[in-house]
Amino acid sequence: MGKLYKPGIASATVLVVLVLGVALWAVSAYGESISLVHAKEQPAIPLYLQSSNQETKSFVVDSDGDEDDVRLGDGQCGTNLVEDAARNAVRTEVCTLRAAIQEADASTGVGKITSDSRTIQLTRPLPVIELPLELNLKKVTLDGSRLTAPASGLHIRSKQTKIRGLTILGFSGDGILYERPAGAPLTLVNVESGNNCGWGVRAPQNALVVHGDIRTSNNGAGEGCEAGGLFIQGTITDSSDGFLETIGYNGPGLVAHDDISISLLGFESSDNKGPGLQSLFGSIAITRPNEGSSSLNVKGNEGPGIFTGLDLDFDVARDDDPGDEPLVQNIIVLGMPIIVENNGSWGILASGVGDVFLNVSP
Predict the structure, then answer these.
(1) pLDDT band with cut points at 50, 70 and 90 for residue 36
(2) Which of 14, 68, 77, 194 could be disulfide-bonded to 59 (CB atoms 3.0-4.6 Å)?
(3) Res. 66: pLDDT tops 60
(4) Using the 8-state DSSP alphabet, how is residue 26 labeled?
(5) Cβ atoms within 10 A of the Cβ of 57, count?
């Protein structure tokens, strides 16, 4: 990637011409290539109506296997049938993560899937998650390295989804792909996503809420892979107990279509082949949690460290094109030490008519 001008901090309309060749030089290619990957994923299980008065129940994953649910739609998670003395099937046993997701999609009243620590090597793409669900997975690793079909680790379309305690590694698509219509955020708690060909987390129409440690590393890795850490359409909100880390991508570290609003204990974006932190059409605001200590580290990226705007060669969709009216895209960092160093371009760059505020209120 070519060098841009000398590092520094800049703003105002005169900087528009300085961003040529910078920023998200491959984002449009990412969207195209990844959509082809996901086109072949396993079709979703048909939806069933949820009963409004039925008690919410949970499934407990107790197997490292990858077998299907044996009796889909009976409200039980199990890959084996258990018979009574008269050889009548009375219940199922051995609950895999695949079986739990299948049964949650097909049954009414399932609200949670839990599991203790285990590694699950998938043999096929998991079913699409279609209904509201909480995955409370304590140090579970989802390994996609043996898959022959293109797949994301988790493909989610439900409007209320929380994922806790999961590590996702080695998938040909995104670690997590969230495709719910706009307005329904995805919640992640202590999640890691790495060594995937696609993005660590991709929510093309939605906001992201994170708690605990969210770590994404070395995504977009491998031959023909071009992606980064996180790509979000809506805002990115990190709660006051969160730490967000995006390291070592074949693309940007963290990119949002709209505003990025983060209040966190720590943020690091380093060694990526694009900007460390970028908002295409919005502003970036990073603040310290109330009565908490924070740090911001953006270093060693091949593009700008922190950047609002987009490359002028970027192929913007007609609905997204702001036209001739320049956007006000500010960068605001308040109440924390800032380290922005050794990036391949500007350290901090607000294009258009934006301004930069470092530990000074706008």
Answers:
(1) very low
(2) 77
(3) yes
(4) T
(5) 15
Rounded distance between C-alpha atoms, residue 174 and residue 238, angstroms: 21
What's the CA gap between 343 and 278, in Å, rounded? 14
Exposure of 43 by Cβ count < 10 A (0-12 exposed, 13-18 middle, 19+ buried)?
exposed
Residue among 270, 193, 267, 216 nearest 237 (CA) = 267
Q: How far is residue 199 from each of residues 49, 175, 219, 252, measured CA to CA in Å?
A: 32, 6, 6, 10
Buried b / exposed e across 340-352, counting CB within 10 Å, b at 16+? beebbbbbbbbbb
The structure tokens 């889909």 sit at: 72
Which distant-in-sequence residues (6+ apart) come within 8 Å of 108 by Cβ? 48, 49, 50, 51, 54, 75
Q: What pTM, to 2 d.p., does this model score? A: 0.79
Of 343, 322, 336, 356, residue with least CA distance to 23: 343
Q: Is the dihedral of CA 158, 163, 166, 169 positive or negative?
A: positive
Check pLDDT > 60 for residue 318: no
CB within 8 Å of 154: residues ≥ 6 apart: 126, 129, 135, 142, 163, 166, 168, 175, 176, 177
Q: What is the 3-state secondary structure (H, E, C) of 174-195?
A: CCEEECCCCCCCEEEEEEEEEC
Residue 82 has pLDDT above 70, yes or no: yes
In this predicted structure, what is the pLDDT of residue 26? 36
